[in-house]
Design a protein that fits this description.
Blueprint (H helix, E strand, L loop, with lengths): L1 H29 L7 H17 L4 H25 L4 H19 L25 H5 L4 H19 L1 H11 L1 H6 L4 H27 L11 H11 L4 H23 L6 H21 L1 H7 L13
Helix pairs in contact: 1-6, 1-9, 1-10, 1-11, 2-3, 2-4, 2-9, 2-10, 3-4, 3-9, 6-7, 10-11, 10-12, 11-12
Length: 306
């Protein structure tokens, strides 16, 4: 039972940064914009959040700074892709490289200095329950916030007029513009939100998941978040399930190494990424499913007439 609880809670924790980043990118892509720079935005969020903690700032302020760093990076992408109509693939890749360089510069003096991690919440009575307590009521605040944001984003996209407008822009920005909606401005807001979420994901990595600075500590999680959006066929619930799948694979390979399973450690470390590739290949074979929710104008530049 202890092993099961450890795997369950570890899966939820490992999936949390992926949930933040992938849900943010989902909103961006629903507006018709493709931002490949999640890895860079996550790294900037991680670096600036860690810097803020090292500077003695309260943990909530440090997390906010990390989120704003991600949003600031996404603004740079927005200027290139939405104002100057630069190729979105190239602009996103440039942002990923830029974020990696900036985070390395910010963290150059941190070394491997650990910090006090974000503490789990102490929920009276509930956290003391046998089995259910450690499984559901001993996480930190950012884990619970991820679930709140999942519910809020799902409600926004499919239960509000603003969400309908956003999705319409992803299908036909010309139609949205023709009926009076400011397409570029709303896409900017979506891009900034995606950057904010990626910054939160990075902040979680550096102040909660692994509370010490390691250069390029995201280890490809930004790219996995991009893959999760495709895996989810642009649906929030499937994003959540995909993040848990990858989180579960991550924890299983760690548990496998701890138990001394006679498999090369390199292969175990690659297990989460191999699982993601396999799932993506299987999903990609069903083109009807992909086309069902695929934003028709994704990555296509739009310039308002007149």
């Amino acid at each position: 039972m202890d092993l099961f609880i450890a795997i369950f809670t570890g899966t939820i924790i490992a999936a949390t940064p992926l949930i933040y980043a992938a849900l943010g990118e989902l909103v961006v892509e629903k507006s018709g914009v493709l931002n490949l720079g999640i890895e860079g935005m996550m790294l900037m969020g991680a670096a600036f959040a860690f810097w803020a903690v090292m500077a003695g700032m309260p943990m909530p302020v440090a997390i906010l700074i990390g989120a704003l760093a991600g949003a600031a990076a996404s603004l740079l992408f927005g200027v290139l892709a939405l104002t100057f109509l630069t190729n979105q693939y190239a602009a996103g890749l440039a942002l990923a490289i830029f974020g990696s360089g900036v985070s390395a510069f910010v963290g150059r003096n941190f070394g491997s200095a650990p910090i006090e991690a974000l503490k789990p919440l102490d929920i009276p009575v509930l956290s003391q329950l046998p089995v259910a307590g450690p499984m559901f009521f001993r996480f930190d605040a950012m884990v619970y916030l991820a679930f709140v944001l999942f519910g809020a984003i799902s409600w926004f996209l499919y239960r509000t007029k603003a969400g309908l407008v956003l999705r319409t822009m992803g299908e036909s920005p010309e139609t949205s513009h023709a009926i009076g909606y400011p397409v570029v401005r709303i896409r900017y807001m979506a891009v900034l939100f995606g950057g904010l979420m990626a910054g939160l994901a990075g902040a979680y990595l550096s102040v909660a998941y692994t509370p010490l600075w390691v250069e390029n500590m995201t280890s490809g999680k930004g790219w996995i978040s991009l893959a999760l959006v495709v895996f989810a066929t642009w649906r929030p619930l499937r994003v959540l399930l995909g993040a848990w799948l990858f989180g579960g694979m991550t924890i299983l390979q760690l548990q496998g190494q701890a138990l001394g399973i006679a498999v090369p450690s390199e292969l175990l470390s690659a297990l989460p990424y191999l699982a993601t590739i396999v799932v993506l290949v299987l999903i990609s074979r069903n083109r009807q499913m992909l086309a069902l929710h695929f934003p028709a104008s994704l990555a296509k530049p739009f310039r308002p007439a007149g």
